[in-house]
Structure formats: C-alpha cells, structure tokens
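A sample follows:
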Amino acid sequence: MTQSFHALVVNKQEDQFSIDINTLTFDELPQGEVLIRVHYSGVNYKDSLATIPNGNIVHTYPFVPGIDLAGVVVSSEDDRFKAGDEVIATSYAIGVSHFGGYSEYARISADWIVPLPSGISLKEAMIIGTAGFTAALSIQRLEENKVSPDKGKVLVTGATGGVGSFAVAMLSKLGYEVEASTGKESEHEYLKGIGATTIVSRTDVYNGEVRTLDKQKWAAAIDPVGGEQLAALLSKIQYGGAVAVSGLTGGVNIPTTVLPFILRGINLLGIDSVYCPMDNRLSVWNRLATDFKLANLEELIQQEVTLEQLPDVLPTLLKGQARGRTLVRLITED
C-alpha cells in the first residue's frame, strides 16, 4: 500500500494564506481508529469558508478541509469496522478541526462513521452528502410535527442550493406541493425539473418588511437561509405549521415576536446535522437509501471535479453561483 498520497491543504502563516495540492504521508494524518481510502467528497458552504483566510472555520494550520467523505476501510482498530467495508463520514469535527475529505486517505474516529446503507453507492452517498442529509433531517422533523401533504404547500427557501435542491426533490417525491423560493430566474426550469410545483421570488417571501402576523400561505417551510427572511416567513405559516431551519447565510438574527407561536401554534425546528445522535443519523441515512431515495440524483450534480480542480471551484458557493451539488472524485476507478 502506498505510504504517500495527495490532499488539498490550506495553510496560514501570519498574513500569508495558501491553498495547494500537497503530498502527505500516513504519519501526517490525525489520530483515529479507522483508515479510509476516500472515493468521493463534496463541496459545502462550510468547505468554502474553510478555504479562505477569514472564514472562521479552521483555527489550526496546515489543514485538510472537506466535511464529507465516502470510501472503503483500509484498516480498523475498532471491531465495528473491517477492511473492505464501504462507509460514509460527515460532520462532527471532520473538515473543521480534524482533517477531512479532500484527501485520498482519511483517518477518523469510528464513532463518526456510518456503514453505507444497502441501496446507495459511494458516489450517490456523496451526491447526497451533508446537504441531502440536512434536507432529509428537516423533512423528518416536519413529519414528527404532523406536517403532511394534505396540509398544504411547503415552502423551500434558498431552493437552488444543496439543502434547498434536495428538500424540493424529496418533498416532491413524498407527494408534497412544493413552492420553491429563489432569486435566480435562470434556474426556474431546473427547480421545476426536480419537483417544484411553483416558483416564487425572494421578495415574495421577504420584501424588506417583517410583519408580526401576515396572511397564512404555507403549511410548513424548510429554510437553510435564516435571518430576516425567516422572520418574514414565520408570519406567513398556517396555524399549527412548522419551519425547519438549518442555515444562516441570511444572518443569525431573527426579528420576530412570540405572536406567531402563541396565536397560531407554529413551531420553529432547529436542524443540527453536525452532532445529530448516531441512532438518528443511521435512521435518516437508511431513509435516504429507501423512501427518501431520489431516482434523479444525477440531476442534482452541478459538476464533478477532481482534487486538482477544487481550488477554482470552492469560491463559487461564496459568490452564490452554486446550483445543487458539486461532487469531488478522489479515485480513478470504482
């Protein structure tokens, strides 16, 4: 087995910041019970932040980003895994304070690993990645709060992004009438193609004014945006409805009041994909391989890139240019 391999490495020394494809050895990998030959990773908003000097994601350098990875176990010191097992690892400290998936090999804790469910491939698992997992977790939380297709339309904000795209597609598959919100007129056909019933502009959700209570429009919403837009849509949720929020690209402050909650009985559901308990994580991944599985997964890939192409691709998420998922291929054969 090779003792050296390639990885994308970010480094910061005083006022100098670099991002390069470097050759590493196994001795340079962090501690962990399981060594994995990485086949695929993906690009997430957090990954893009990790590769800029002021992203506030990485605090120790040099570092290998990438919060998602899927591959095959090379060796394991933990009885739960053995050489040859196909596995998924997302979130926890991966790609934040522990070397991540932008590397041909990764060594991580056994407690962070999900066995690849029957019904999906390693490639499909990384098309899904944290984005699809977060969308699935959001839908499951809405279901737990009695949201169902017969209750009315479900709004998805940031609909062309990774979480938004998966939310639109999975809700449609489950029989929901999906209203997708986007500021990109050029992407309307894409959103209709993956299952959106209707498209609304960002200003239809938030026009710069947040009313305490507004006309009831949606039975529920999946919101990976947050900020003032979230406050505006909370005022438009039908009685007894719910909003699953998982993002903050629109800001961290929500200028709302208690009135939508106590007069309409709505629920604001926080979605955490990072430290989601393993029993729930396993359940959601199994659903992603069964009743949540999409027949059109490939349609959610904006592009498939190599490790060498990553430095040019990562900034696109920060510029709002992403659509669906960017898949990172780290192995030349399946």
User: Anything to note?
Assistant: Residues 122-144 form the longest helix (23 residues). Residues 84 and 304 are 25 Å apart (CA to CA).
